[in-house]
Amino acid sequence: MSRTIRIALGSIVVGLVVLGLKLLAWWLTGSVALLSDALESTVNVATAFAALIAIHVAARPADAGHPYGHHKAEFFSAVLEGVMIIVAALLIMREAYFAFQHPPVIEAPAMGIAINAAAGVLNAFWCWVLITKGRKHKSPALVADGKHLLSDVISSGGVLLGVILAVTTGWAILDPLLAGLVGLNILWSGWKVTASSLSGLMDEAVPDKTLETIRAIISDKATGAIEAHDLRTRHAGKVTFIDFHLVVDGQTTVEDAHEICDRIEQSLRAKLPEAQITIHVEPDHKAKHSGVLVL
């Protein structure tokens, strides 16, 4: 079992525990703000299952039907998470609207607040685990799950503040008001997760910093070549796809050109272990005098 799958399984367990704590807090208090917090946690559990399935599919090796692998499955999961976050936000705002018309009386606030706070601490810890490990293992599904939990942690803090203010001031209207604000925050979070995941499905190029690293390696390790042009990149999960044209002297033998390509590929994979590289070798009359010049 891979590390990413173990982490995804952990997300399901943590999500169920947090959901149980938040539902208990709502049951004790009757607070619509705490109910909104619990509703978001139901999405956490659902998206954790979606992430687990996507990571399992993405780990499958390339086959005849999918010669480039199944890495984009994680982006589909991340998009699904974003959509489900948006749905949860709309449900929360609906509950807030009805509660705003008839503000509920909050009961047993101290116990409910303490239980909800414990759930928030657990979520904050797991959020850090997901984002840190997701970036380390280049898993969009784990990172998206972590960012979703981050929005949950922030909104939980706002919910607790609202419930405390509603109890201490006696202004019951603060409870649905904070629930509505939580819904808006979650709605924005869902949009960001969806937008960032769609960029991966649209074959967005690697970040500028990574692109500069790739260009520097090609320039340094392509000794014997003249230039590299038409460099293209994209990413899918942990895999980075790189392809470019390498111009060599027309008298260069196939063996020598192959040796140059091997040297470049080894250096690129030392920096980007999961990289899939395609190099098209061309004679010098194909030079464009642009792109990456060889040092």
TrEMBL record:
Keyword Transport tagged: yes
Any one of the GO BP annotations: intracellular zinc ion homeostasis
Pfam family, one: Cation_efflux
Keywords (A to Z) from UniProt: Cell membrane, Membrane, Plasmid, Transmembrane, Transmembrane helix, Transport
Ranges that cross the membrane: 7-29, 41-61, 73-93, 113-132, 153-174
Residues of the Cation efflux protein cytoplasmic domain: 207-283
InterPro entries in the record: Cation_efflux, Cation_efflux_CTD, Cation_efflux_CTD_sf, Cation_efflux_TM, Cation_efflux_TMD_sf, CDF_Transporter
UniProt subcellular location: Cell membrane
Residue intervals of the Cation efflux protein transmembrane domain: 11-202
Topology in membrane: Multi-pass membrane protein
Major localization listed first in the record, in broad terms: membrane
GO cellular component: plasma membrane
Keyword Thylakoid belongs to the record: no
Superkingdom of this protein's organism: Bacteria
Recorded GO MF terms: cadmium ion transmembrane transporter activity; ferrous iron transmembrane transporter activity; zinc efflux antiporter activity
UniProt cross-references to Gene3D superfamilies, sorted A to Z: Cation efflux protein transmembrane domain, Cation efflux protein, cytoplasmic domain
Similarity annotation: Belongs to the cation diffusion facilitator (CDF) transporter (TC 2.A.4) family.
Protein name: Protein p34
UniProt source species: Paracoccus zhejiangensis
